[in-house]
Amino acid sequence: MVMTEPRKPGHQPTLGVLLAGGLARRMGGGDKPMKTVGGKTILDRVVERLRPQCDGLIVNANGDPARFGFLGLPVVADDVPGFAGPLAGILAALDWAATHRPEIQWLMSVATDAPFLPGDLVSRLHKARQAAGLPLACARSGDQTHPVIGLWRVDLRADLRHALVVEDMRKIDRWTARHGCAAAVWPTLPYDPFFNANTPEDLAEAETITLRHQDA
User: What's the first-to-final CA gap in the chain, in angstroms?
Assistant: First the structure.
């Protein structure tokens, strides 16, 4: 089981959002988070890892929210039409946080096809953005950046809405570059903590990882 760092003095209250709005075309349709790895759904594994690190979780998903009812979490749909991608889900979560959790200034977004998220994800991203003096941070493993797995400031939501609705901006790193985004880096050995399961072959590889590594 993944080890999660205990809360420390100076902890920054952070809301976690599980981005589950993808269409899963490479997985043959359906919800990727409901696929199983090591006897658990990927979604259960993501919740298990992220919940101790955050001050609440919500789900971003489109379609029938009842399919995530078993989690007992708020389900927030995009309000930007046309499947505008992860930025639309992040915007929906930022808006929800501003309305329902106004005491929280930070949002942590994660992909729900990543079964091996690290237990120090939130704390290391906060350290990275504080050290760099920047308002945003994302994860990187080796030389690959993972812009969806990122830390967002709630008060930037108006600028993000303008970028999506007026500028038709879709690429995450294009918008984050506008404000400045720090990166926290993890090694890819013995396995990549941000491995994502997009295909049936990826699911088979994820199963192999869980068999080889007890902490996965």
Answer: 6
